[in-house]
Amino acid sequence: MAIKEKILLIEDEKSLASYITAILSYHDYKILHVATGEMGVNIAASHVPDLILLDLGLPDMDGIRVIERVREWSDIPIIVVSARQDEEEKVRALDGGANDYVTKPFGNDELFARIRSAIRIHRRSLSLRKEKIFVNGGLVIDYEKRVVTMEGEHVHLTPIEYKIVVLLSQNAGRVLTHEQMLGVLWGPHGGESHTLRVNVANIRRKIEKNAADPEYISTEVGVGYRMEEVGEQDPRA
Questions:
Q1: Distance between CA atoms of residues 236 and 150, nearest Å
Q2: How many Å apart are CA 126 and CA 86, to the nearest integer?
Q3: Residue 51 DSSP one-character state
Q4: What is the spatial distance between Cα 42 and Cα 37, in angstroms, rounded to a whole number?
Q5: How many whole angstroms separate alpha carbon 228 and alpha carbon 129?
Q6: Burial bucket for residue 109 (CB in 10 Å: 0-12, 13-18, 19+)
Q7: DSSP assignment of 133-189, as one string?
Q8: Pairing label, strands 30-34, 78-82
Q9: Is 130 exposed, middle or buried, given 0-12, 13-18 or 19+ CB atoms closer than 10 A?
Q10: Is the peptide bond before 105 cis (omega within 30 degrees of 0)?
Q11: Over the stretch 61-93, which tens digit does the pLDDT of each residue have?
């Protein structure tokens, strides 16, 4: 069986590192493992993995600093795997540039699903940057024409609603914190979380089959929003 994607594991807990390495290797992923942040940054630069699994509690530096250093030059998907469960830590990691956050202990199926999704979305994002069209299930965004359709029907969005949908789509699969979104949408001194929530609620009423149980834009309670990966079908076909 062919080797799948290359994953860099930055984890200093030996037993957990051995376990993750074993289960990923069994599923044919190529694993690079280091136990410190500095080594992780260096290996990421020299080997350019398809994804990074990162613990925050490293012996030489905080994992969030690792994220920030990698983000200086790369958008490699980064999934934080940490025992820290409080929302503030999640927000710090996501604000720093992490794509996702898995709390220890975790199930194997959940970890594999997050890995597959992060890699798939990243690759699709690279392709869509060239095509300038975002397709996710029934949702299609034509960035050049500034047109949004759902199941082939035009969706009438206000300018700020359109900006929110575009921002989430360009970071599909990744949780964007309230602070990140407010900064991009209204600048460092503009916009409030309440205004963002109202606009997201309006968008959901326009694109979701059930706004109370959204399929496309999910909420990470106390943290922010994520554009979920819904499917591969192309309603333009």
A1: 10
A2: 32
A3: E
A4: 9
A5: 18
A6: exposed
A7: EEEETTEEEETTTTEEEETTEE----HHHHHHHHHHHHTTTSEEEHHHHHHHHH-TT
A8: unpaired
A9: exposed
A10: yes
A11: 999 999 999 988 888 999 999 887 778 888 888
Supply 176's token pair.
């964007």
Provide the pairing of β-strand 139-142 with 133-136.
Answer: antiparallel
Domains recognised in the chain with CATH numbers: 6-120 (3.40.50.2300), 132-227 (1.10.10.10)
Exposure b/e, 159-195, CB count within 10 A at least 16 = b: ebbbbbbbbbbbbbbbbbbbebbbeebeeeeebeeee
**pTM: predicted TM-score of the whole model, two decimal places:** 0.69
The tens digit of pLDDT for each residue in 186-225 reads: 876 667 888 999 999 999 999 999 999 999 999 988 899 9
* Degrees to nearest 5, angle at CA 79 with 161 and 183: 30
Measured distance CA(39)–CA(188) in Å, rounded: 34
Q: Do 98 and 80 form a contact (C-beta atoms < 8 A)?
A: yes
Q: What is the pLDDT of residues 107-124, one digit of tens each?
A: 889 899 889 988 888 887
CA-based radius of gyration for the chain: 18
Alpha-helix runs per DSSP H in the chain: 14-26, 37-47, 63-71, 87-96, 108-131, 159-170, 178-186, 193-207
Of the candidates 85, 116, 158, which has an alpha carbon nearest to the alpha carbon of residue 99?
116
